[in-house]
Design goal:
The chain has helices at about 20-40, 45-60, 60-85, 95-110, 120-150, 150-170, 200-220, 220-230, 235-240, 245-270, 280-290, 295-320, 325-345, 350-360, and strands spanning about 10, 195, 200, 345-350. It has about 350 residues and is mostly helical. The protein starts with 7 loop residues before the first strand and ends with a helix.
């Protein structure tokens, strides 16, 4: 009997007290910090000085703090966009492309129509267009998924590179500024988002969006349909839900918000358009989603933490002459530990001897 019983097997945990859940997550973060200390020691750097430099560089001055907020805005906005798709178990890996296409839509009006409209109208049109472009880009793989059962993970990932290619063509073609520069001109002031507290108003938009998405996912009929479909497609069909309609609608919502993030990046942060306008936010936001367990309010803290690490990385390189790769390793360790701890929250390991005692 023992030979047939695995030495270690996994069992799904039913319900773990929230206090214990957060204790495990806190322990995982502390473990990541300790491992980071070893990394700094190996590189002949005082860990306390290194961590102090990261915090002071990111939070010690107004300029650093403002940059942290700028970095956090696209992470939070994109994570909010992906949350309903992931709850539905529709794996949208195309946020990078949807952000890019949203930026393309906004940039058209910023470059071609800025003289024809006053700034408030122009910015509104840019925002609406970015939402429509992002939603359109997300609907394409959702339609194929609903009609022919294609794999949305590969499809949405492929769409990223098409969007980046489109911007590359615009840079060297129709929207190129100085011939041969491969650079799109800067936006006119009328097409640039106004600032509040030294940062473009995108930070206010994503905070409002956090509340809206929390209500949408937890207290609306659409949010309920997303949750049911994520639990079981058969149950959703039995309950009379139109699975294709819910899938396309949710993908459009996700893509629309990603497009809005593209508008904020192009008009607020960069004030122009280029092929790397998304800056990896579409991929990093996936981690933000999972660490937050799809909780919009938890995403605020996680996006802020990653933004602090990102800003602190540049300060480490300039102040302590530490290669930026070290800070990337530190970020990876923190993410790995935080994601890994979710395994112990959701599953428990049962050893052979323990199983036999339970049986007895």
């Amino acid at each position: 009997m023992n030979e047939k019983t695995p030495f270690i097997r996994l069992a799904k945990r039913e319900d773990m007290p929230k206090s214990k859940v957060w204790l495990i997550r806190g322990g995982a973060f502390v473990l990541a910090i300790l491992i980071g200390c070893l990394i700094f020691l190996i590189s002949d750097t005082n860990p306390f000085k290194a961590y102090g430099t990261i915090l002071m560089g990111a939070l010690g001055k107004k300029t650093g703090f403002r940059q942290v907020i700028k970095n956090a805005v696209p992470l939070l906005g994109t994570a909010l966009a992906l949350a309903p798709c992931f709850r539905m178990k529709y794996w949208n890996i195309g946020a990078e492309g949807q952000i890019t296409m949203g930026a393309v839509g906004a940039s058209f009006f910023a470059l071609k129509m800025y003289e024809a409209m006053p700034s408030p109208v122009l910015l509104t049109v840019m925002g609406v267009t970015s939402i429509l472009f992002g939603a359109f880009w997300a609907i394409i793989p959702a339609l194929f998924k609903s009609r022919w059962g294609t794999n949305e993970t590969l499809f949405t990932l492929m769409m990223n590179y098409i969007a980046i290619g489109i911007v590359g063509w615009l840079q060297g073609g129709p929207w190129e500024g100085k011939p041969g520069s491969q650079i799109i001109p800067l936006f006119d002031e009328k097409a640039v988002l106004p600032k509040v507290g030294g940062v473009h108003i995108g930070w206010i938009i994503v905070l409002l969006l956090t509340v809206v998405m929390y209500v949408y996912m937890n207290y609306t009929k659409h949010g309920y349909e997303v949750a049911v479909l994520g639990e079981s497609e058969n149950t959703a069909v039995y309950a009379g839900m139109n699975v294709a309609k819910v899938t396309i609608r949710t993908a459009a919502l996700s893509g629309g918000i990603c497009g809005l993030v593209g508008f904020m990046l192009a008009s607020g942060t960069n004030q122009t358009l280029y092929s790397d306008v998304a800056g990896g936010a579409g991929f990093t936001a996936i981690t933000v989603c999972w660490l937050a367990q799809l909780n919009p309010f938890a995403m605020i803290a996680i996006a802020f933490l990653l933004a602090v690490l990102s800003k602190g990385a540049s300060v480490l390189q300039t102040s302590l002459a530490i290669p930026s790769s070290i800070s990337d390793i530190l970020t990876g360790i923190i993410l790995l530990c935080m994601l890994g701890c979710e395994f112990f929250i959701n599953y428990r390991m049962i050893f052979r001897g323990h199983h036999e005692k339970e049986a007895a």
